[in-house]
Amino acid sequence: MPTIGYQLYSSRNWPLVETLDMLEGLGLDAVEGFGPLFDDPAATKRLLDEHEMTMPTAHFTLDLVAGDPTRTLEIARTIGIQTVIVPFIAPDQRPMDKAGWQAFARQLAQAGKPIRDAGLGYAWHNHDFEFLACADGTLGIDEIAAHPEIGFELDLGWIHAAGHNPADWVRKYADRVLAVHIKDRAPDGENLDEGGWADLGYGEVDFMSIVPALGAADVEHWVLEHDNPSDHKRFATRSFNALSMFV
Fold first, then answer.
1. CATH of the domain at 201
2. 224, 5 in Cβ contact below 8 A?
3. Structural domains in the chain (count)
4. Per-residue pLDDT of the chain (247 residues; tens, 9 = 90+)
5. Which domain holds residue 149?
6. Under a CB-based contact definition with an 8 Å cutoff, are residues 199 and 6 in contact?
7. Most buried in the list 37, 77, 79, 190, measured by CB within 10 Å?
């Protein structure tokens, strides 16, 4: 049975203690971390322990992973993070052709070596841009995948937003998927105040076809996420209830 987690970035606009109280009340016992929570990793670990929660996966910037692997590992060990995930590159840094993506993939793979050598998982989290073809037809996701030492946290909502079937990509890289973001997308023109995202089960992503692919791939970590909920308790409650029907 997979671990069901919650990406705390979804609740970045609310106090952390309030969020953990809310998640504990729903019955969630795993979360996924991100940058500000690493400013004082010991304090973050104490809060997690107080709520009987773990943080098996977390998002670290490429600058931190590549520039200070010692600090990255210190944070991971303090909190108990098992998989380090690089989540994003800014638009002005995104490759525009095959050569650019190949260079980026090499950089990403090299940055992960100390993480892997320490026995931790290492993965890339996608948005839509890796699934949008460059002028020369290159898909960034395939160039990253050319390095088998890089795992994936597939963001199913962003794959859908890029016009692809998420289940196809889960199957394609089944042996590389360490985690997934369970995320739903509203139909075009809806939920604009929330960036076009939807609570799980209230959007158009076909999870009935995705869940069997996740099961066949034996994906260990399923992480609920919404990029900009106006009400994080509503999002968490609806989404956890919807996901409970699948696992």
1. 3.20.20.150
2. yes
3. 1
4. 899 999 999 999 999 999 999 999 999 999 999 999 999 999 999 999 999 999 999 999 999 999 999 999 999 999 999 999 999 999 999 999 999 999 999 999 999 999 999 999 999 999 999 999 999 999 999 999 999 999 999 999 999 999 999 999 999 999 999 999 999 999 999 999 999 999 999 999 999 999 999 999 999 999 999 999 999 999 999 999 999 887 7
5. 3-244
6. no
7. 37
What SS3 class is residue 145? Answer: helix
Task: Confirm if 106 and 150 have CB atoms less than 8 A apart.
Answer: no
Answering whether pTM is above 0.85, one says yes
CA 228-14-37 angle, to 5 degrees, is 95
Q: From start to end of 25-149, where are the E strands?
A: 30-33, 54-59, 83-86, 121-125
Q: Would you list the DSSP string of 57-80?
A: EEE--HHHHHH-HHHHHHHHHHHT
Entry field: residues in the chain: 247
